[in-house]
Amino acid sequence: FRLSSIFQVPESFSNEVMFLTVQVKGPTHEFTKRTTVLTKNKESLIFVQTDKPIYKPEQTDSSTVHSEPLQGSYKVVLWTETGRIVEHSFSVEEFVLPKFEVKVTVPEKITIMEEEMNVS
């Protein structure tokens, strides 16, 4: 026959090897079985994210607590109950408009007779 039972193991913050002993007693027979089991602690999934990787000095995010943050790199670090470390990086930088150069090439002479001209 098959015996099914749900039981709770003692709380642990690490993976542990434990002994599981099952004993069945009947009117004429007795059965005992002992085995080792590896218990693993369940842990919640942790996800850390800011809404963008780069902030201006005056900007803040609901997941960060900056009154007047200095420019530079920052890291949010969380330690879980099991000792696992979760990290998320972001930076605070002054916004600078990108610089670029535009070169336009036109014909050396343009007359009123020309309806079209090539410009690159």
Short overview:
This is Macroglobulin domain-containing protein. With 120 residues, this protein is mostly beta strands.
Characterize the main sheet: 3 strands, mixed
| Class from secondary-structure proportions | mainly beta
Radius of gyration: 34 Å
Q: Give the integer mean of the pLDDT values.
A: 82
Task: Give me the oligomer status.
Answer: single chain
Secondary structure layout:
Elements: E1 16-25, E2 30-39, E3 54-55, E4 72-79, E5 85-92
Parallel strand pairs: 3-5
Antiparallel strand pairs: 1-2, 4-5
Care to describe what's here?
The protein is an all-beta fold. It has one domain. It has no helices and five strands. The protein has strands at residues 16-25, 30-39, 54-55, 72-79, 85-92. A three-stranded mixed β-sheet has the order 3-5-4, with no helix packed on it. A two-stranded antiparallel sheet has the order 1-2. A hairpin with a 4-residue loop joins strand 1 (16-25) and strand 2. The protein is elongated. The termini are far apart. The mean pLDDT is 82.
List keywords for this structure.
120 residues; mainly beta; two-stranded antiparallel sheet; 5 strands; 0% helix; Macroglobulin domain-containing protein
